[in-house]
Specification:
- By secondary structure, this protein is an alpha+beta fold.
- The chain has a domain at about 80-175: 3-Layer(aba) Sandwich (Rossmann fold), CATH 3.40.50.1820.
- It contains five helices and five strands, in the order H-H-H-E-E-E-E-H-E-H.
- A five-stranded mixed sheet has the order 1-2-3-5-4, with helices on one face.
- A hairpin with a 4-residue loop joins strand 1 and strand 2 (about 95-100).
- The radius of gyration is 21 Å and the shape is globular.
- The relative contact order is 0.15.
- Pfam families: ABHD18.
- InterPro entries: ABHD18.
Amino acid sequence: MRSTKRIWQVSPLVPSQIQPIMGETLDNMFYVMTNTLAEPCFTGGWGKPKLLQDIIDLSSHAQQSDNYEARKTLITSNIDVTALSETAKDKEKAMLINGKFKSPAAYILPKESEECEFQLIVPQKKPSEAMPLVIQYSMTGDHGFGLRREIGYKLLKKHKIASLSIMNPFYGSRKPEEQKKSSLLYVSDLMCKGIALVCE
């Protein structure tokens, strides 16, 4: 049988000593994200060492045991949700509910990201039976609810599917003051955002 060998090519934007293989792939990505984009990401570096260690410990323990206390604290149904406003949309026969709650992962997030804002689109009249609900997260660069809200109205009207849109940490009203646009300051921000979204 003829064997094949995978050949890796080095991008001209990356120093020749950085080869995109195995663990060094991360170094390659880091270089590109911090040096070649119009709004570079991770300009602050990896982040605080203690936070990085906390993330590693949480991941390790959560995989090892279903009874790990930190895991049960993060994945919880005991969340106080505040409804900020309710608006009837007669044309769509929908009710738009704006609300917020404190993220279960608030302790690893910057203060601006600790509260999770959301928009819930449901029928004006309570359905006679349970209906499906889709969760919409922010797309890259999506710092508002406008597009997802319109999608939610269509899902409800055409398919009778309710919609819950969550504002991602580090986006929109949850964006840290020193962050420019969608460009995360630290590598740890990306990890924290992922953890928070799963928990929320």
